[in-house]
Amino acid sequence: MRASLAWLLFALGAAIPSVAVLVVALRAASTESARAREEQFAERVAAAQATKRDVDAALARATETLRRLEPAAVSRLESRLMAEKPDFADVVVIGAEGQMLVPKPMTDEPPSPPECLTHRAELLEGDRTAARDGIIGACPHLKSEQGRYLWPLLALERVAEGSTPADAVATWIEEHAARLGPAERSVLRARVAPLPEKVRDAALGALDRPLPLHRTLAGLLTEPPGSDSVEAGLRIHRGRYLSLVRTMPEGIDAGFVVHESSMIRAPGLPAHLVLAAGARGDATDVVLTPSLVLHVEPKDGASLDAEARRSGRRILAVGVAGVLTAVALATVLFARARKAQRLAELRTDFVAAVSHELRTPLASVRMLSELLETGELPDDERPEVERTLAGEARRLSDTVERMLRFGALARGRLSVQKSRVPASCILEDARDRFHKAHPDKGIVVDAPPSLEMHVDPGLVGLVLDNLLSNAAKYAAEGHPYRVEVRRDGRHALLSVSDSGPGIAARARRRIFSPFERADDRLSRATEGTGVGLSLVRGVARAHGGDAFVKSTVGAGSTFVVRFPLEGS
């Protein structure tokens, strides 16, 4: 009970600082995660500022280039502008009639045959199935009156019916993706979703490719003027795109266009950061026009968030590891202190027990000696007194001898003087000694007459005396006791059995240790020093053997001592 209370108090004492340290570690982890995110944001702000400075400087150089531009043929204008353009800008040259000369437009598709136009009309007014089959079979370039391709939508209908292979749709999209506008791409992305995975991935990959530059710029330049201005002879547009254009004498417009897609080539960004569209309204914005605002963001935001969390978790892990280490060390030290305290208590009990065992025979010897000394003892009682005196003297001698042997064992100086002796003689001598001390207890000896043991007879006799004495103390009602020896391969197994109360499993692991006893409650009611079984195991190991116990609670115990048989 006292041990349980001590461990409970220790657990409470260890829990309070441990919880406090864990709370601090949690706060430190949270702070570390926030610090990591702040560092990431600060890096993005610095990258945005550097990008804006680089863009402004490059645009200033581009402006000077346009001011110094001399009239020339379109090809020469293109070459000069391409050599001087900022990395994040595209060159544009527009003819006097408003046609885009640079970048060069895609070649025109062949015109659809008359029968394809007939099929298109029949889709709405005639036999739709026949018209659809005709278009799929011979009109891959046919467009609706609104300028959108008909072939992929009609082919997807037949794919759903199972009459057209899905990979034919993916092939058409890969061949025509450059001519598809944003609206058509959006419709087709939704329509190809049910296709088989491999076909779908191929189609989506084609649809995700950037639009051809001519197509992109043509779409942007249709934006109506509204925020245009003229500065130093240059016309500047600030809307969904930023353009710097100079009108040459021949009516040709030449200049640079900066738009959302071109800004991905902007300088000044670390490899793990990118520019993304959409105003954020924070310090990571790169503002080119009121409608062209980009912001710096991580290329892999989830990875950076995970790294911030990992930074916090590392702090927490260090805190938890520190707490666990401290608790483990404290537990080990406390356990050792408890063990030392228990050992000190056991040694105190041992000294008290030895004193008691010595005092009892000494008191008897003194009393009987005084009776003999006074001469007042009747002659008819003298033999009984002398026998009792001799018995107490032997008891005293046995106790002293046991203590001397235990001391020699503890110092590793137990001397073994072996001789070959019949096992039956050792057992019968032990039986006789036990009968003299306990005439009311029965004992059964079983030893093969031919079995000889190469042992120290005195020490083996001491082993049997201790085991039988323990049986008489702790299993008083469990006699007759059985003492047996038998051959087991290259060993002799010497056993002492009783049918007493048995020994609990948790006690079996410690009863062979010095000062330990099998049952504390039963031990307090019996005399003993707690070194008997320790001496039994020590004698066995000094011979090269060992000792162990087999026991069942309520059914008795068997102590077994194993001795090697030399020469067998």
TrEMBL record:
Its EC number is 2.7.13.3. It catalyses: ATP + protein L-histidine = ADP + protein N-phospho-L-histidine. InterPro entries: BphY/WalK/GraS-like (IPR050351), HATPase_C_sf (IPR036890), HATPase_dom (IPR003594), His_kinase_dom (IPR005467), HisK_dim/P_dom (IPR003661), HisK_dim/P_sf (IPR036097), Sig_transdc_His_kin-like_C (IPR004358). CDD domains: HisKA. Residues 353-567 form the Histidine kinase domain. Pfam families: HATPase_c, HisKA. One of its GO terms (molecular function) is kinase activity. The chain crosses the membrane at residues 315-335. PANTHER family: SENSOR HISTIDINE KINASE GLRK, TWO-COMPONENT HISTIDINE KINASE. It comes from Pendulispora brunnea. This is histidine kinase. It comes from the Bacteria. Keywords: ATP-binding, Kinase, Membrane, Nucleotide-binding, Phosphoprotein, Transferase, Transmembrane, Transmembrane helix, Two-component regulatory system. It is an enzyme of class 2 (transferase).
